[in-house]
Amino acid sequence: MFLREPKNNKDIFAVLIENGYLDGEKKENYEKIAGFRNVVVQDYVRLDPEIVFNVLQRSLPDLQAFARHIKENFLS
Fold it and tell me: What's the pTM value of the predicted model, to 2 decimals?
């Protein structure tokens, strides 16, 4: 697709927004989700399941919208 290479996993969303693949209004939400992913991967031993559940509940609409967008634009 000849897009710039993201600097990190948060930057993936910036690259997709810059190229019109995602709505820029959700950038902060996507970056927070990516940041939480880092916590889950790097500090999973100390995670509180209730916090994980709450974060996922708040993030679910954005994750679903992201998945729908990818499916409609890249997998069809």
Answer: 0.74
* Interatomic CA distance for residues 67 and 59, integer angstroms: 12
8 Å CB contact between 58 and 34: no
Whether the CB-CB separation of 56 and 23 falls below 8 Å is answered with no
Residue listed under structure tokens 């000849």: 2
State which amino acid sits at residue 21.
Y
Q: How many residues does the chain have?
A: 76
Q: What is the pLDDT of residue 73?
A: 80
Low-confidence ranges of the chain (pLDDT < 50): none
Backbone angles phi, psi at 47, to 5 degrees: -70, 140
Tokens encoding 63 = 């994750």
